[in-house]
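Figure 2 data, in text form.
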Amino acid sequence: MYAITIPESGGPEVLQWAEVPDPVPGEGEVLIDVAASAVNRADLLQRQGFYDPPPGASPYPGLECSGRIAALGPGVAGLAVGQEVCALLAGGGYAEKVAVPAGQVLPLPDGVDLVTAAALPEVTATVWSNVFMVAHLRPGETLLVHGGASGIGTMAIQLAKAVGARVAVTAGGKEKLAFCADLGADILIDYREQDFAEEIQRATDGAGADVILDIMGAKYLERNVNSLAVSGRLAIIGMQGGVKGELNIATLLRKRAAVTATSLRARPVAEKTSIVAAVREHVWPLIGAGQVRAVVDRTVPMRDAGAAHQVLEGGGHMGKVLLVR
């Protein structure tokens, strides 16, 4: 088969479409003929040499895909050869074929075509596990989403609104904020011109946000904690703003607040299986009912993955960038 390989760390130009050995599904795995994959920030970090795949995972980038099941490994039940599916991966989505544990495979949601489905596994699993399974966002609470126009952000807005929460977002520029508003965001903050901590206090009459979904890490840590409501929960899922920050424990104690940090890729298969099952139970019906949708900025031929990486690095996209075979 062919896959996007990374012969050396560097810029988007190092990505190469090359012939590599076909994967073979092991015990409890299925082999998928890939129709599409999606570009995630983790792929850019892997290309730069900062985020190696977990032990035993495919060496090729790509944390999600859609396609058709080509073969079943030993012990797999409930799935069939030829079935159209999408899947959460530990790697290997930028390829013609990928082997994946059966518990990380999902049927296509009602009304979603095969290519568009590639935009769903990573964002739905990330948002549902962090905002709902860990931070326990409830109806009537306020969620602050950093990077509201990103793939994660667009899904977080929609899912939070679907369960009856109020949503605040940060994004850069009027176009992105208008896009977030169309998805249901209630409080729009331009991080280029406004201080989000001041704006969230103003918009909530000083109460703060009950849950914050953060992609920035160290750069936003102090302001995020200051922005939390009493019993608030800060869920950190990214480090775009650095890895080391100062945490005021007194503020955290006074607010009886919590800070969590999680990554999805390196979790054990059993944990990913539980998250994927929860996504199928809670998120897939919302997509099928039209309350939530995949947001796709553009599609790019998979062999031109470097161009897709440039799009993400440029920051002008809204929603997911897909790689299609």
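Caption note: Residues 131 and 137 are 6 Å apart (CA to CA).
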